[in-house]
Amino acid sequence: MSAYVSAFELFSIGVGPSSSHTVGPMRAARDFAARLRETGALGRIARVSCTLYGSLGATGIGHGTPDAVVVGLQGCEPESVDPAAVRAAWTQWPEGQTLLLDGTHPVPFGKADIEFAPRTRLPGHPNAMTLRAFDSLAMDAAPLVSEIYYSVGGGFIRRDGEPPRVSAHAFPLGFSDAASLLEVCDERGITIAEAARINEEALRSDTEIAAGLDRIWDAMASCVNAGLGHEGVLPGMLKVKRRAAMIRAQLEAAEAEGRRELPGEWLGAFALAVNEENAAGGRVVTAPTNGAAGIVPAVAMYWWRFLADSGLGAGNAVTPHGELVGSALLGFGGSAGAGALAAAGTDASDGGAVAEANRRRGIRRYLLTATALGSLFKANASISGAEGGCQAEVGSACAMAAGGLTAVMGGTNRQIENAAEIAMEHHLGLTCDPVGGLVQIPCIERNAIAASTAVTAARLALRGDGSHYVSLDAVVETMRQTGIDMSTKYKETSEGGLAANVIEC
């Protein structure tokens, strides 16, 4: 069985502020309602209830978990739901109003129908919830249907007693760890991105893969741009002031005065922008989680704006004139030059169109490389802050971004693995301690710092030959062990760390 997880599962378009506490519970509640319909039980249901356990119970209100459950029970999907509707779904629920279960069947519902049990931890995962449907309004009635769901990180869910859904795919290139991934690539003479693309082809056509990756990037870029434009204060009791728009204005003013561009400061602004949008409950892409959603887009935007036409890196694929050279943008389609551009419908004489096509090819390679690396963390450790601490979220995202940047800068497979290892190694032991249960402090700044670390890791790897003492697999296993050893109070419960030592105002 391959460790590979499809890019369209690892990178999913949803809403903030949390993939495990918002997106996952919404999907679980929707799945529960759909099962009632599919089994013919929906018409018999008189009321529903939900209990949130462990981390979902401890920080669920700050993460919008009960709101997500309500819209999920109504049949809404994270990919298409109006973010504004989610924010008020439970918080502002009018007493006495009926809930349209699965979007069609009315049942009485009140805020008390969602219960919180932060001290109760179910064995399957720290993020657990039980959904119940009753055929009687009597409060002492036994449920007609009861299901336990686990939100296992990155928006992925698992129903109790059901095997992980991602394992159902039969991918042609099987690899269980970084060593076997490199071995597969060596045997075939392909890049890590090409290995990912070959696996994606088991599920969809090349055209669908390209269009899907473009949609993911467009959603990421839209989130960056939205965050750079929005001012004000983030929701919640902390009253955190948004900073990305202010930094953008300062940087634009400096450039207008003729001062040189400041790529590193823009990088931080890009990451802040995404995570401020996430904290506000906006439209974001899990990458691989919402809490770490700013790192992969920020580094990609950094490459897009400052490096794509620079000719930097050994064998870099883009010249200042936009021609495809070398190998850096290969790995999606496998060919470069006028033929590839013509196949994509791009006029080679149109410099702007060529540059845009080059960048999109690069972003696809970046995302495919990041997907292969992220799959290893998900399969062999965790991407859930409630399970492994913030090292599992921010550390994994940093490694994915570092590897992706190394790929589009012309790095070899072993340089890519080295970059991911460097990035993850320096996040080992990082705790998940959101102040007030909100994905704001330290989460927003943490994404900006990790984006910078990803760029540094890529540059260090590109200066080497790919050989290094500590393997990526050793770091992944260390992260897993560290997560097991980490106290529960440092795993998204807001019971330790900054959450316990910062006064909430």
Describe the structure in brief.
Mean pLDDT is 90; it is low at 311-341. This protein is 49% helix and 9% strand. It is built from 19 helices and nine strands.
Can you give the helix content as a percent range? 40-55%
Radius of gyration: 23 Å
Could you list the spans in which at least 5 consecutive residues all have pLDDT below 50?
311-341
- Any idea how many domains? 2
What amount of the residues lies in strands? 5-15%
Structural class label = alpha+beta
Main-sheet strand order equals 5-2-6-7-8
Number of helices: 19
What's the mean pLDDT score? 90
Structure notes:
It is a single chain. By secondary structure, the protein is of the alpha+beta class. The chain folds into 2 domains: 7-166, D-3-phosphoglycerate dehydrogenase, domain 3 (60s Ribosomal Protein L30, Chain: A); 171-501, no CATH class. Helices cover 49% and strands 9% of the residues. The protein has helices at residues 7-10, 19-38, 54-63, 65-73, 83-87, 178-188, 192-200, 206-229, 244-256, 263-279, 295-307, 338-343, 351-380, 385-388, 390-408, 413-425, 443-463, 472-485, 498-501; strands at 13-15, 47-53, 98-101, 105-108, 114-117, 127-134, 145-153, 156-159, 283-285. Strands 5-2-6-7-8 form a 5-stranded mixed β-sheet. A two-stranded antiparallel ribbon has the order 1-9. It has a two-stranded antiparallel sheet with strand order 3-4. β3 (98-101) and β4 (105-108) form a beta hairpin. α9 (244-256) runs antiparallel to α10 (263-279) and α16 runs parallel beside α18 (472-485). It is globular and about 70 Å long. The termini are far apart.
